[in-house]
């Protein structure tokens, strides 16, 4: 990256709109959603179920095209890319973590972290060293050769996070990444995710229902009536039992 691009937001969303056809009805899920996420920033994406958080993350992650508006990643206008360019951008610059881990069941934890790196052209030794490092960060060295089904839910999700950041993306998009875990494990895994993100230059946009978790991030934005609005969480009102 040249020096000019370092000051670019990791992600810039400009006036996104998106509509779904539901039978005879049209549902306007996004209606002028704009936001910027800077490198090294962790931003919570709040909004009730059905607000359009997943849709927004899919569009930001170039998995879906908006009806109108712009997605810029590291200063690049992704609307101007062809299919190949979008795929390259997605693999190189974006990491995803989902509520359900979507690990490859036939491969070990380590291989699940190695494979996406090799798809990008890293050699096996480099990819394995990176996977070892990441799994060690999560205390999973002893579990590296286990398949997903042999891991606990929290361990599976840690592997999914390791996979999400393995390619050193500029942007991490996470969709309720600990929503499938029990509250205690979810808390722990979430804290580890934030640590990992904060120790890197990645900009992270993380959808969550959990206000307490959201309050730990640098900034909170809420998806409301298709628009993104900044929100301040008053931490004094949050119970910390
Ligand atoms: P959230 O992640 O905030 O719960 P979603 O982005 O999943 O919200 O969904 C927003 C709205 O769009 C919901 O009403 C949902 O039913 C609708 N929706 C999502 N995906 C589709 C689709 N592929 N076709 C039709 N409607 C959809
Ligand atoms: Mg969702």
Automatic annotation (TrEMBL):
<keyword id="KW-0067">ATP-binding</keyword>
<keyword id="KW-0813">Transport</keyword>
<keyword id="KW-0547">Nucleotide-binding</keyword>
<dbReference type="InterPro" id="IPR003439">
    <property type="entry name" value="ABC_transporter-like_ATP-bd"/>
</dbReference>
<feature type="domain" description="ABC transporter">
    <location>
        <begin position="11"/>
        <end position="238"/>
    </location>
</feature>
<dbReference type="InterPro" id="IPR027417">
    <property type="entry name" value="P-loop_NTPase"/>
</dbReference>
<dbReference type="InterPro" id="IPR015854">
    <property type="entry name" value="ABC_transpr_LolD-like"/>
</dbReference>
<dbReference type="InterPro" id="IPR003593">
    <property type="entry name" value="AAA+_ATPase"/>
</dbReference>
<dbReference type="Pfam" id="PF00005">
    <property type="entry name" value="ABC_tran"/>
</dbReference>
<dbReference type="InterPro" id="IPR017911">
    <property type="entry name" value="MacB-like_ATP-bd"/>
</dbReference>
<keyword id="KW-1278">Translocase</keyword>
<comment type="similarity">
    <text>Belongs to the ABC transporter superfamily.</text>
</comment>
<dbReference type="InterPro" id="IPR017871">
    <property type="entry name" value="ABC_transporter-like_CS"/>
</dbReference>
<protein>
    <submittedName>
        <fullName>ABC transporter ATP-binding protein</fullName>
    </submittedName>
</protein>
<dbReference type="GO" id="GO:0005524">
    <property type="term" value="F:ATP binding"/>
</dbReference>
């Amino acid at each position: 990256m040249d020096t000019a691009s370092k000051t670019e937001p990791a992600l810039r969303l400009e006036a996104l709109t998106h509509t779904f056809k539901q039978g005879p009805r049209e549902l306007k899920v996004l209606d002028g959603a704009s936001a910027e996420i800077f490198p090294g920033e962790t931003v919570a994406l709040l909004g009730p179920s059905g607000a359009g958080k997943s849709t927004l993350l899919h569009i930001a992650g170039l998995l879906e095209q908006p009806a109108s508006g712009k997605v810029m990643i590291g200063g690049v206008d992704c609307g101007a890319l062809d299919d190949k360019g979008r795929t390259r951008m997605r693999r190189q610059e974006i990491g995803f973590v989902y509520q359900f881990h979507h690990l490859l069941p036939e491969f070990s934890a380590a291989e699940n972290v190695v494979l996406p790196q090799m798809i990008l052209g890293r050699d096996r030794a480099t990819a394995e060293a990176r996977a070892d490092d990441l799994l060690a960060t999560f205390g999973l060295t002893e579990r590296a050769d286990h398949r997903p089904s042999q891991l606990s839910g929290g361990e599976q999700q840690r592997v999914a996070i390791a996979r999400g950041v393995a390619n050193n993306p500029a942007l991490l998009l996470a969709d309720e990444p600990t929503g499938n875990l029990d509250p205690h494990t979810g808390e722990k895994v979430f804290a580890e995710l934030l640590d990992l993100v904060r120790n890197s230059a990645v900009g992270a946009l993380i959808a969550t229902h959990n206000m307490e978790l959201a309050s730990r991030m640098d900034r909170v934005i809420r998806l409301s009536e298709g628009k993104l609005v900044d929100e301040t969480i008053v931490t004094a009102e949050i119970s910390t039992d």
